[in-house]
Amino acid sequence: MPTGHFAIGDLSFSFEGSLEELAHCQEIVREIERAEHRLRRASGAEEVVVIYDQDLEGERGTFDKMRLRAYDDDHNYTLDLGVTDTNPLGIYVGYDQNIEVYDRDAGEAWQITPEGDPVQPDADTSEANRREEPTAREADASRGPSSSSTQSTDSPTQSTEPASSEGPSQAEIDRAAEVLLTRVRQQPSEQRVGETTIPDGPLGEKLLGFATYCGRDEGYLSRVLDVKSVSGIGELTVGQVPDVLAMIKDEETLRQNESFEPDTDLPF
Question: Are residues 92 and 190 in the same domain?
């Protein structure tokens, strides 16, 4: 059985699987490496470590969570890794996921965007998220770089070189679409996108962000909206979002929808 050797943060490991599975693992690791680069850029640190917190208390009971973290002299910078059954590693990181920053001396926490800008969360959404599960600050409020709960194995030397400037891979785009669809399925299908907010923010902004992530310009997005006979993202319904994401991801899908012609032979 082929074996692949990978590293996430300061943790290195081997994985046995088919060549297809190992290639999929490599795509996920590259996606996580992009997240590690965002943490290094935000913190100025060279090292990113893997944290595994167990028996965290949430409204739905206890749970475990794996995290990526970097440190500077006064702050923790954290990105949570999600759990999924759609890839062999069973984990993923959101393509536009905010970074949580925790001031160890002041005991205060806030979020910044992947670009490093402060996030001003909606009060209701922030409170709902706080009730759902503890943040990295609540889980390990005083933990600094010397008290990491995760032991590394054969830790590789961390590189300070920037992540690849190439665009996201198809696997990364597919994963981003899947995460967005998971959020959307929780909303009423007839509701307008412009009136819909998901846990990550306004749905319209997330669709625009996904189009940008895929390298689609305004002209391309206009073609997608024309297929749905609307003039703006906000006029779409939630039920139309899966088709819209498919057309944003794949231009051939968009062309097929553009070339569709109704049957004019019908007598009505």
Answer: no
| Domain end marker among 115, 147, 179 | 147
Query: What are the backbone angles phi and psi of residue 223, rounded to the nearest 5°?
Result: -65, -40
Give the CA diameter of the chain.
77
Cα 204-42-138 angle, rounded to 5 deg: 80
User: How is residue 103 written in tokens?
Assistant: 């001031």
Residue owning tokens 């759902």: 132
Are 240 and 114 contained in the same domain?
Answer: no
Q: What pLDDT, in 10s, does the model give residues 137-172?
A: 444 444 556 544 434 334 333 333 444 446 677 877
Q: Judge residue 215's burial from the number of C-beta atoms within 10 Å of its C-beta, 0-12 exposed, 13-18 middle, 19 or more buried.
A: exposed
| Cβ(43)–Cβ(72) below 8 Å | yes
Same domain, 33 and 97: yes
Same-domain check for residues 133 and 201: no
End-to-end Cα distance, the chain: 61
Nearest C-alpha neighbor of 253 from the set 244, 263, 262, 241? 244
Token digits of residue 46: 């060279």
66-103 tens-digit pLDDT: 999 999 999 999 999 888 877 889 888 877 788 999 99
Q: Are 172 and 95 in contact (CB under 8 A)?
A: yes
pTM over 0.85: no
